[in-house]
Amino acid sequence: MDASSPASPETHLLLIRFSALGDILMTVPVIDALARQYPHVHITVVSRPFVGSIIRLLPENVSFFGINPHGLSVSHLYRELRALSPTHVCDLHDVLRTKLLRWRFRLAGLPVDHIHKERRARRAFVAAGEKHQQKTAFRKYDEALGRMGFPIVIDETQPFRLIDPIPHGKSDVPRIGIAPFAAHRGKIYPLDLMEQVVAMLSERGVQVYLFGAGATEKQQMEEWAARYQGVESVVGRLEDMAAELHLMASLDAMLTMDSGNMHLASLAGVRVVSIWGATHPLGGFLGWGQRMEDVVELDLPCRPCSIYGSRPCRFGDWHCLTGIKKEAIVERLLSR
Predict the structure, then answer these.
(1) Nearest CA to 239 among 175, 166, 334?
(2) Fold of 175-333
């Protein structure tokens, strides 16, 4: 059997995705399906070192190669990855760095393909008056693998659980996680309003866990935890991302923005109530297995103003976020 064939036991498929966190996490259920449907194929995921604890939870035929590409030349990256002896390369990122990498692999005679981001369709979606469901990132990853000769069957509507929950005994007290941060201002519910959400949940006897990263977020979350009963900050207290996932899997629900934490919680198989401002859940980035019924948003003609939420508000008031009532968020969280 030809070692270059996807059916060969010698097949070694290299998957490349360096950023952003949410996009990396969205590869996970697709790679899980790939690994289970092609158990003879050796799969190596190339990404930033901090996601290694998540990738290592995938089936045994999946390996992780962590590398930070910043400051490294394409030639250096190519030598590092070529030393892994892949037989196939799939670029799940499609940025200049990875385009140059896959060009080098193609020159070396390897089968190569890449994700099609369909940027024109994204621009049309942002400009459209009526919003229709766009092809999801999961499906785009799936299609790239299919073009390489690895067609898989996935069902994005079904819950996905990468890790078992932490046993915490039986309790009638709801356990809810809150991750109030995101990469861009246009995706963050105002922190003064989010603190009021925390206060309302505390008053109702909910056990709240606060998630975040970095010194500034840690200080903010610890202040809230000290202020309200039944509220605990876990920022900086868990060993790695897999430990966060483990805790999330034991919760009744997570409240997130359109953020990496929405996708992390989705990998835990937990219900996610997500708040959307400048971006839109029909744009293709809603968490795996999550429902539109759990989306909190305002129907405004200016939404979305971008796919990623990185543009400044044209009106300067971010009404898409400030206009969301805290009571609506709490009721959605406690609705089941």
Answers:
(1) 166
(2) Rossmann fold (3.40.50)
Chain centre to alpha carbon of residue 90: 19
Sheet holding 62-66, edge to edge: 62-66, 42-47, 12-16, 88-91, 112-114
* Rg, C-alpha atoms of the chain: 21
What's the sign of the alpha-carbon dihedral 147, 148, 152, 155? negative
Take residue 73 and report the two structure tokens written for it: 């030349």
Listed by start position, the domains of the chain span: 12-147, 175-333
Q: Output the CA angle 24-285-131, nearest 5 degrees.
A: 160
Q: How far is residue 189 from each of residues 34, 38, 56, 96, 333, measured CA to CA in Å?
A: 36, 41, 32, 32, 15
- Paired tokens of 196: 């009021």
CA separation for the pair 106, 312 (Å, rounded): 40
- Mean local confidence (pLDDT), 317-323: 97
pLDDT in tens, 238-296: 999 999 999 999 999 999 999 999 999 999 999 999 999 999 999 999 999 999 999 99
Compute the Cα dihedral for 316, 318, 319, 320 and give only its sign.
positive
CA–CA separation, 320 and 276 (whole Å) = 8
Looking at 3.30.1050.10, 3.60.21.70, 3.40.50.2000, 3.10.25.10, the CATH number of the domain 12-147 comes to 3.40.50.2000
What pLDDT digit, counting tens, does each position of 129-176 carry? 889 999 999 999 999 999 999 999 999 999 999 998 877 766 789 999
- Say yes or no to pLDDT of 7 above 70: no
